[in-house]
Specification:
The protein has 148 residues and is mainly α. The chain is rod-shaped and about 195 Å long. It starts with a helix and ends with a helix.
């Protein structure tokens, strides 16, 4: 029985040593867990702060984008009007140029026609003058011939 008591005492010592060792191990693991939780909490807090600042940045950028989009639409409308006006102005200038070319062409035809009419009239006047001179010279020659 003594042997059994000794064996029981030995086992109880082993048990108490093992329990002490497990208790120390448990405390160490609890400290590690606590440190890990604190570190994780700090990282989560840092992440939340980063995300909050990024969200603020995104909101500022969206606000800026919205304002610039409105300004762009106003400017686009303005410059579309200007482009339309310039387009109409170019069309009007093209029409005016076409009318001017037609006018110049018509004036050229009219000028050539006037020149032709003037040359015909001058030719007619010249023929009449020549006829008058011939008629005078024939009368004068006939009279001269008969006097001889």
């Amino acid at each position: 029985m003594k042997q059994l008591n000794d064996q029981v005492e030995g086992l109880e010592r082993q048990l108490s040593d093992l329990m002490e060792k497990n208790k120390e191990e448990e405390q160490r693991l609890r400290k590690e867990k606590s440190r890990a939780e604190v570190a994780l909490s700090a990282r989560i807090t840092q992440y939340d702060e980063d995300m909050l600042s990024r969200q603020e940045t995104i909101q500022k950028l969206e606000s800026l984008y919205t304002n610039e989009l409105k300004e762009y639409q106003i400017l686009k409308e303005y410059f579309d009007k200007i482009d339309a006006d310039l387009g109409r102005q170019h069309e009007e200038e093209d029409i005016i140029d076409a009318v001017a070319r037609r006018h110049d062409f018509a004036m050229g035809i009219m000028t050539r026609a006037a020149i032709m009419i003037q040359s015909c009239i001058r030719a007619k006047i010249a023929r009449v003058e020549v006829e008058k001179l011939r008629a005078k010279s024939k009368k004068g020659k006939k009279g001269k011939k008969s006097k001889k």
